[in-house]
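Repro case for the chain-ordering regression, as requested:
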Amino acid sequence: MYNYSEFDETFVRARVAEFRGQVERRISGALTEEEFKPLRLKNGLYLQLHAYMLRVAIPYGTLNSRQMRQLAMIADRWDKGYGHFTTRQNVQFNWPGLGDVPDILDALADVSMHAIQTSGNCIRNVTADHFAGAASDECEDPRPTAELLRQWSTDHPEFQYLPRKFKIAVTGSRADRAVTRAHDIGLRLITSEEEETGYQVLVGGGLGRTPMIAKIIRPFLPRQHLLPYIEAILRVYNLSGRRDNKYKARIKILVHETGLDELRSRIEAEFERRLADFAGVDQGVVAAIEEAFAAPAFVARPNNRHLDRLDADSNYREWVRTSLARHKRPDYGIVTVSLKRVGGTPGDATSVQMTALADLAEKYSHDELRVSHEQNIILPHVSRADIPAVYDGLRAAGLASANVGLISDIIACPGMDYCALATARSIPVAQDIARRFDELGLEKEIGPMKIKISGCINACGHHHVGHIGILGLDRAGVENYQITLGGDATDKAAIGRRAGPGFSAEALLPALERLVDRYLVERQDGSESFIDCYRRVGEAPFKSALYPGATQRRTRFRRRKRA
Amino acid sequence: MNSIIVRDDGFHEDELSEAVFTSLETLKTGVEVPVYLHLENDEDPACLPLYFCWLRLIRIPFPDFADGRGFSLASAIRRLGYQGCLRARGHLIADQYRQARQSGFDEVEIGKGLAARQPERQWLVQLANNPGSYQDRLFGKRPVPAAPKSGHLRPELSPSSAGMPTV
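-- result from build under test --
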């Protein structure tokens, strides 16, 4: 794992001192609220519906037990005893006082953490595959790239006041667990025909009001040209991205309005100019980064206990089936810890749970934890010999829900319970869905299913890429939920299609039940997942399940119109 | 005199308050004496190298402190090889002074109202507290010149040649 260099330490401490001064100058009136806003946002501090919210960066979602324990301490000391893990692999504290924030930032710096650029119109926390360094299908660990980008983008003087926020994700695997195609820039580590490693560069993806799948702007970028090329993209975006309308300010709109080919030629021209005075990246810094992500010292041990438990304990078997992923070493496994307890808030963990996770990681996962964009926690390197012990530890902490990847493993934005932008509730909707399918006992039968819920059009809950997406809107003061179908966040990325008119909060759950029932009827057998079934049979049967009786009427209407 | 010029050694009166600034359009039609250029933040600087020897100073406006085009423009102009004086003008706040200097600006022109609300000390502390930059660590110190100014400044008002350690 990456440990702070002396420079990182000095930089982060100076930044905390600077922010402390900015808070004082805001209070004295030297800074107006308008001027203070981007400064606090760059330090992770939002003003939410009820209070300030502090978003802490967990770069590329990787942290160690000491850092997790410190998050627990902060939750206890300055917040209400819990934290919320987010779709950008960050953690949010929902109730800090403005005056306490500099102290919280100092406490983060004590364990090599910060909240820099987790918000604001700048380059945000760089995300990466949460199975990085552990996945069996990986060509290369994406985290050294992500760390290099973190350093390069931190306080970059040119790119602190962009037209809008800017998100970069990196993956080293074919299975796109980092959702690179929904980012402003997506980077995929690939090997060229000449066996050289480099990047496929995608640009212009994003969800929000205008969801778009990123397009390939460079099929192959040699590794050593990463920073000059990214800098060229950012410079072109900073100079020509729209600033007249914040909803049209993301780079995806620039790609759309300018055209991919024209934008590519501008970026290439800027890249050529940048290369002229580019002498390479300091190799000492690069080497230190790469060394930091060397694989841990794995130990081969017999896994009899795991096998015996699989035979003897059906709950264990069920949990292993959903929570254990293949590790690059056959005698190890990747454990996903569900933060989606039925009836709980998706992504929330109490300080006691955070401490339990830290203890388990220290003891059984080479001191590493990950936060996934699906708002779960990963123990990336668990010897199969230790999996029973991890399971027992998680059970004791109330963290052994066997629902990873199932219908109750829902991504939900904070919605109207916390967010000032929200137009509808999303957490209670997620809770109702989880409870209902738990009562029906159907979850296991339904199998893999991604439901994603956003409480407004800004799409923080990623509903566009849910197999079933739910978008909560306000219709004349009443919550109304639109359903989209067929979205996909993986390497087969797709934007879901709106099924039809929205549902009231009361009608939503019965509609989802009809939808799921129809899937169970339509599928070929138990091995065909919802999304595969949807792709095979198309949207018609699902629409007729959602709107019984409506299909015929609408057909008649269309015919009449044509005549 | 309605403006204050911020440099690394503090606040100054604006020696150019009476000066006439030329637009890019006029510059392109040809000039016969050295000029002060006002470049809008949506204009393309690519043609500037042709005219570098005629430029005594380039001024770039900041209509709003949240509009960061000027930072990229300054950086682009430096990369094109401009060694003369670059001035940022308009709504920049003290907290942006370091970014302005690191992007290639030599000085910032602000209104007297802002200067009263954010006095000299708040700008200079930006340099004093500078921990260094990640970009310099990664790329080495950039070859952005801090050397010969185009001569609009009285010698005693020239920015200290030491300048920002990171530029």
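Ordering looks correct now. The two ends of chain A are 68 Å apart (CA to CA).
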